[in-house]
Amino acid sequence: MDRRGREGVEDLSPGDRVLASVRGGFAEFAVGPAAGVVKAPDGMSFEQMAGFKINYITALHGLRDRVAIQPGERLLVLGAAGGVGLAAVQVGKRLGAHVAAAASTQEKRNFALANGADEAIDTNAEGWRDRLKALYAGGGPDVVFDPVCGPLFELAFRSLSWRGATLSSDLRAAHPIATGQSSADEGRRAGRRGCSPVPAHRAGTGRRPAR
């Protein structure tokens, strides 16, 4: 932090390393409200600070507030080696979920495992649902966290357990099931299992059905 305002800012001082939510943040200097500025932990690098609030608030809000994931529930994270995906892995573990990480390469899967995932699966769509069923001993995940909205969205959604939910950062980019434009057959299949797509971001309004 370079400077602070004249009044009402008591717990921050020039020179503090801070995390802030501001407009025009891609600049050398920016002005932010005191309510949106907090001191950064000493062990956090500037690189970690840059993506922390967006990635981890998205994951925490989605898993805790949108779907109210419970200890012991099965969480499948797609794109698990990316920023939001890795945050979902770590937040999910912190909330007590059993976390499976999906990533495209062995290196990325190892990275997710090293950061808390209980198990990992590839992202090759061919035969993927069969491998997922084997991973869950014939069952399916209770929650899917999908920040990618790619070809696995539908496959993962169809693999959900009873009253499961798929969290996505951008449902508009996902499969028609998520936007209400799916066929009647697709809608009935989802309805029979009580499953639903849920937005992970704060602007969304959806919630997971009661289990």
Overview of this structure, please?
It is a single chain. The protein is of the alpha/beta class. The protein folds into two domains: 18-44, no CATH class; 52-199, NAD(P)-binding Rossmann-like Domain (Rossmann fold). 33% of the residues lie in helices and 15% in strands. It has seven helices and eight strands, in the order E-E-H-E-H-E-H-E-H-E-H-E-H-H-E. The strands form two sheets. The protein has a six-stranded parallel sheet, sandwiched between helices. The chain has a two-stranded antiparallel sheet with strand order 1-2. Helix 5 (152-158) links the parallel strand 6 and strand 7 (165-168). The protein starts with 17 loop residues before the first strand and ends in a 12-residue tail after the last strand.
Salient structural properties:
single chain, 211 residues, alpha/beta, Rossmann fold, six-stranded parallel β-sheet, two-stranded antiparallel ribbon, 8 strands, elongated
